[in-house]
Amino acid sequence: MTAPADGHRLGLADPGQENALLVGIIEAISAGPGLQPLAASVARLIVEATTTDVCFVHVLDDNGGALTLMGATPPFDHQVGRIHLPVGEGVSGWVASHRQPAVIAAGKESDPRYRYFPELGGEHYTSMVSVPMESRPTGLVGVLNVHTRQRRDFTDRDVRLLSSIGSLVAGAVHQARLHRRLAAREHAAERFAEQMIAAQEAERRRLAGDIHDGITQRLVSLAFHLDAAADAALEDAGVAVRELARARELTDLTLDEAHAAIAGLRPPVLDDLGLADGLASLARSIAQVQVRVVGRECQLPEHVMIALYRIAQEALQNVVKHAQATQAEVELRCDATSARLRVTDNGRGFDPGAQPGSESSYGLRSMTERAEVIGGKLTVTSRPGIGTTVTATVPVRSG
Q1: Which residues make beta-bridge pairs with 132?
Q2: Residue 15 half-sphere exposure, CB side, CA atoms within 13 Å?
Q3: What does residue 250 show for φ and ψ, rounded to 5 degrees?
Q4: Cα–Cα nearest to 105, from 151, 144, 155
Q5: C-alpha to C-alpha distance for 373 and 380, rounded to whole angstroms
Q6: CATH code at 15-183
Q7: I want to staple 389 with a disulfide (CB 3.0 to 4.6 A). Which of 49, 122, 161, 344 is the partner?
Q8: Residues whose CB is less than 8 angstroms from the CB of residue 91 and which lie 6 or more positions away in sequence, other chains included
Q9: Model-level pTM greater than 0.90?
Q10: Which of these, 54, 86, 90, 84, lies nearest to 69 by C-alpha position?
Q11: Residue 40 · residue 77 · CB < 8 Å
Q12: Residue 321 in contact with residue 347, Cβ under 8 Å?
């Protein structure tokens, strides 16, 4: 069934079709918590029941700043996960920001809200309606779009039906997102446990090597110089003084190495200074790059402070080793619900998707896992030539 080209209204669905559509969507919701299968099923059901030509299901990301194409009918199903639209841009972004439907019967290219995506072939579709997927318990979770090749004058009834579908799907999308986050957190915890064991063994080997090659050897050398000083004390006071001076140097070096080994196990500055001043101390220890620290002290659990400190430490090490930067900034911000650590540099930048297996990608994985294991999230923004920003956001429980 195809809409007539003369623009006369054609109902989106008759009551029987509406009921079949709603039953089909309820069955899709009941099929399981997978977000992409749910979005794909909803898109297919809507096209079949409404005699439209294509349907897109855009889902809001966890930060609420962008929409991602999560479900689409052929021939656009292969674009799922590839199309991203900031809230406020395009018709879908406008619907997400204004929380109200948008109907365009024709001439969408002249609509100031419209944004052309070559991958979605907008030039082949004349009419469209876009509605928010939201409900009172969940809030906005995404945007639902339908398009037709020939002109169709969508009615208020059509929009209400699609809005009802969006509201019904919103709860399922919300549950699917919660399930995905829980699964990701469980997976992160498993990976963290595995890597923690491996890291403990590697740390033990490193510390054993450091103690054997550094502290032990210096203590042996220290004993030698003390023996030499004792032998020379009665015969040549000058030799004794030189040996004692050398013994003192070795004592200082050994103490420094012992302090370094202790700091490798736990950053003592957190006990002495707190997180904000600890980050400032970390910044001062980096001579190769000028590092600026902004932000005030946050009252955070000890394990969260340690994780954020280690993330900052790893991020700054990456800046020194890979970024070819001259300046970096470490920002710490807290409010009633979250703590945010941001490390920005003015270096050469990189493509975050093209780093598998490199030393820097290992550092990014390490930071990501540290953030995830404390319930947070790490995001990396970078492009060649514009520097890199690493942001760790961690929820803070009140009370």
Answers
A1: 143
A2: 0
A3: -65, -35
A4: 151
A5: 17
A6: 3.30.450.40
A7: 344
A8: 102, 104, 108, 111, 113, 114, 115, 128, 130, 145
A9: no
A10: 84
A11: yes
A12: no
Rg (CA), the chain: 30
Same fold yes or no, 15-183 and 268-399: no
Handedness of CA 161, 112, 57, 151 (dihedral sign): positive
**pLDDT of 47 over the 50 cut:** yes
Instruction: Give the H/E segment covering residue 57.
Output: strand 54-60
User: Which structure tokens are listed for 90?
Assistant: 């395009």
SS3 category, 29: helix
The DSSP H or E segment spanning 295 is: strand 290-295
148 DSSP β-pair partners:
127
Residue carrying the six token digits 């969260």 = 304
Sequence letter at residue 333: R
Alpha-carbon gap, residue 277 to 286, rounded angstroms: 15
Instruction: Name 143's Cβ contacts closer than 8 Å, sequence gap at least 6.
Output: 58, 67, 92, 95, 96, 130, 131, 132, 133
Q: DSSP state, 119? A: G
CA dihedral 147, 151, 156, 157 (to 10 degrees): -70
Quick: pLDDT tens for 152-193. 998 888 898 888 888 888 877 777 777 777 777 777 777 776
CB 76 within 8 A of CB 56: yes
Instruction: Say yes or no to pLDDT of 246 above 50.
Output: yes
Third-level CATH fold of 268-399: Heat Shock Protein 90 (3.30.565)
Residues 6 or more apart whose CB falls under 8 angstroms from that of 328 comprise: 289, 290, 291, 292, 316, 319, 343, 344, 345, 346
User: What Å distances lie between residue 170 and 18, 53, 57, 60, CA to CA?
Assistant: 18, 23, 11, 11
d(CA 49, CA 375): 41
Decide: 328 and 343 in contact? Cβ < 8 Å: yes
Comparing C-alpha atoms, which of 72, 28, 39, 80 is closest to residue 54?
A: 72
Domain extent listing, the chain: 15-183, 268-399
Contact 92, 58 (CB under 8 A): yes
Pull the structure tokens for residue 62. Answer: 């966890």
